[in-house]
Amino acid sequence: MEVCRLCPRECGVDRKSGKPGACGVSGEGVMAARAALHMWEEPCISGETGSGTVFFTGCPLRCVYCQNYELARGRAGKRITTERLSEVFLELETAGAANVNLVTPTHYTPEIVRAVKAAGKRGLSIPVVYNCSGYEKVETLELLEGTVDIYLTDFKYMDSDMAARYSKAPDYPEVAKAALGEMVRQTGGETAFNKDGMMTKGVIVRHLLLPGHLKNAKAVVKYLYESYGNQVYLSLMNQYTPLPQVRETFPELSRGVTRREYERLVDYALSLGVENGFIQEGETAKESFIPTFDGEGL
């Protein structure tokens, strides 16, 4: 943490000194804002008992339209030790969680590896899910080999201009391609489920359709299918919710996705031959789907 280069920003900040990195956080231990059962992930992740989500404070990508805007910018959460984090994992399993789901974990990778190892020595037996933006360094992901069972990753952009405008990351497409390749390598390109239909190993790639950006979405789906076929599961999401921070500066994002836009994306995926995936039905663009970051479970 003295010269932090865990994420592709490679800011080199001494986070231990109290100066925040590109992720927006600093200091010893980890910052998190919620640890609780979560029912709103893909069916094979949440199931009927819920996914044991731990929402970490800060984010290396920090998209302008982020649904967890305040959290991503380091404005919510409490500091806990690595030891406490391992206890949280065990408490989530005791509560019936189908898995431990690490949300925006990149900048805490070393602490997470230690916490999972410690929890494993005390009996943690449920899968570990790495739930990230896709903006990951291969070298950092390599630290997770043997720790993570399921990668639940975004693939946001094939358009560098979009990535620059909305995430200040024009290198996102190439970074995400390399990161996904490492995730697939670690899982062997295989997917496994238990008798209840819950995923125990594999890669799920999410794409959140943004209003007016169907061309980018199709390019993402095309790349994923042509590169990996049915080795990865696709999760096509229509739940984009326009929040106040975008309405003046990014007016093109001030509406939700239309049914027609989303149907065209799903039809395109099917036309390519995509078989393994998830789609969303009904009204999902609601702020009520955004958790309250009040320190629950920490």
Which tags fit this structure?
298 residues; 10-stranded mixed β-sheet; alpha/beta
Descriptive account of the structure:
The protein has 298 residues and is of the alpha/beta class. 31% of the residues lie in helices and 17% in strands. The protein has nine helices and ten strands. The chain has helices spanning 43-46, 69-72, 82-94, 109-121, 138-142, 160-167, 172-187, 214-228, 259-272, and strands spanning 30-38, 51-56, 78-80, 100-103, 128-132, 150-154, 192-193, 199-208, 233-237, 277-279. Strands 1, 2, 3, 4, 5, 6, 7, 8, 9 and 10 form a ten-stranded mixed β-sheet that branches. α3 crosses α4 (109-121) and α8 (214-228) runs parallel beside α9. It starts with 29 loop residues before the first strand and ends in a 19-residue tail after the last strand. The mean pLDDT is 94.
